């Protein structure tokens, strides 16, 4: 879609949502639901071990297993997020997971570090995005940049 931008991605127990804002001839923006997402990895078993520590607490447990080829995370037998083996060089991507509190940003950062992730940005305020943008960044085993972000101000 020309003249559009992905504004946010949100994982819920039932699905992944993406908010796509269209800045073309439409009078308003449109929200579309993301049905599923494949993340290409070099080693499914290694990546599965990493993501199994991050996704199930958010409502996305392993629900499809294709051995060395792929593994899916989701609910009710449907894989909303899949890790798929790729033998070609992996093109690294950025995925942002929205959370409700700054403490969750810290908790997920530490969980990812403990699972073998590599620090790519300590939890903290990123005011250059907006005044309440609080995030941390981790690289997964293939170097994909994962972000855990809270957009809410501190409670008063």
How would you characterize this protein structure?
The chain has 2 helices and 11 strands, in the order ββββαββββαβββ. Strand 5 (about 60-65) and strand 6 (about 70-75) form a beta hairpin. It is about 15% helix and about 45% strand. The strands form 3 sheets. It has a 4-stranded mixed β-sheet. By secondary structure, it is α+β, with helices and mostly antiparallel strands.
Task: Give a short synopsis of this structure.
The protein is of the alpha+beta class and 156 residues long. 15% of the residues lie in helices and 44% in strands. The longest helix is centred in the C-terminal third of the chain and has 13 residues, at 102-114.
Task: Set down the secondary structure blueprint.
Blueprint lengths: L3 E8 L4 E7 L7 E5 L2 E5 L2 H11 L7 E4 L4 E6 L2 E8 L8 E5 L3 H13 L3 E8 L8 E6 L5 E6 L6
Parallel strand pairs: 4-7, 8-11
Antiparallel strand pairs: 1-2, 2-3, 5-6, 6-7, 9-10, 10-11
Q: What keywords describe this structure?
A:
disordered N terminus, 11 strands, four-stranded mixed beta sheet, 156 residues
């Amino acid at each position: 879609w020309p003249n559009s931008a992905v504004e946010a991605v949100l994982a819920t127990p039932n699905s992944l949502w993406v908010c796509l804002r269209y800045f073309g001839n439409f009078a308003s923006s449109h929200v579309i639901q993301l049905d599923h997402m494949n993340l290409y990895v070099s080693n499914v078993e290694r990546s599965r071990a990493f993501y199994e520590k991050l996704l199930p607490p958010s409502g996305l447990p392993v629900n499809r297993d294709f051995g060395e080829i792929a593994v899916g995370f989701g609910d009710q037998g449907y894989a909303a997020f899949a890790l798929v083996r790729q033998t070609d060089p992996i093109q690294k991507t950025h995925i942002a997971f929205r959370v409700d509190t700054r403490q969750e940003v810290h908790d997920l950062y530490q969980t990812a570090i403990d699972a073998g992730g590599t620090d790519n940005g300590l939890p903290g305020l990123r005011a250059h995005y907006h005044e309440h943008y609080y995030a941390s960044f981790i690289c997964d085993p293939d170097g994909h940049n994962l972000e855990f972000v809270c957009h809410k101000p501190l409670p008063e």
